[in-house]
Design brief:
Layout: H1 12-37, H2 43-46, H3 49-107, H4 109-112, H5 117-124, H6 139-164, H7 169-180, H8 197-228
């Protein structure tokens, strides 16, 4: 077999981009899919296996998103500049907070439905605007912070991606739009506002797919340069 026809192993950076691209793609698919099966944010739902399954899937989705945007940022770090770095940090912190909330929803809240039902009601109602009559600790503070990190981080990261011109510019624009559209729940009641997650999921799928293919484009470009030299 000719050595030119042998499959060249990817270097560490290229392998990471491929893996990160797959994680971003999977995160987008999970993010969209979760919205259609998420149980109602009420006490009776927390006791069900569906609630635990969705919370675990959300935690995985948050982890996949964090890995995915790390790969996306790494590919365009120089071109994205400070705006991209700030957006990446804010957006990454959101996914870390999301993992924390989802972990508690999956493994802590179901254990408290009998002994502390009002506390559970307060926690599950944080993102639907329900007012709690019991002390929820730091969670009422973390919820709006998470919302700001998601909206601002996604907006800045999307704009930086659009300006960097490494990935499809419309993919970056979609990411920025998906972050800003989260303010629409002001006029769209919960749980119908879950549909607003679809643009973000689509943006992650788009950018993840492109990142997954990036090493092959780089290799093809290098082969052309080698052939011309």
């Amino acid at each position: 077999m000719d050595k030119k026809d042998e499959k060249k192993p990817c270097n560490t950076g290229q392998c990471f981009m491929r893996v990160a691209g797959v994680f971003a793609l999977l995160a987008g698919i999970l993010y969209i899919g979760i919205q259609f099966v998420h149980p109602a944010d009420q006490l009776s739902s927390v006791r069900t296996s569906l609630w635990v399954a969705v919370a675990c899937a959300t935690s995985l989705m948050s982890l996949f998103s964090l890995i995915g945007i790390t790969g996306i940022y790494s590919r365009q770090a120089e071109e994205a500049g400070r705006l991209g770095l700030i957006g990446f940090i804010f957006f990454g912190l959101f996914w870390l907070l999301s993992m924390n909330f989802s972990f508690n929803e999956a493994f802590v809240l179901p254990l408290l439905t009998t002994d502390a039902p009002e506390f559970v009601k307060g926690i599950v109602g944080l993102f639907s605007g329900t007012t709690s009559t019991v002390d929820l600790g730091i969670f009422p503070v973390l919820a709006p912070i998470a919302g700001i990190l998601y909206a601002l981080g996604g907006l800045l990261f999307g704009i930086a991606t659009y300006r960097a011109r490494i990935f499809p510019r419309m993919g970056g624009a979609l990411l920025a739009f998906a972050a800003v559209v989260t303010f629409a729940p002001v006029v769209i009641p919960h749980p119908f506002d879950r549909v607003l997650a679809i643009p973000m999921g689509a943006a992650l799928i788009w950018l993840g797919y492109d990142l997954r293919a990036e090493p092959r484009r780089i290799a093809a470009h290098n082969d052309v340069i080698t052939a011309d030299s």
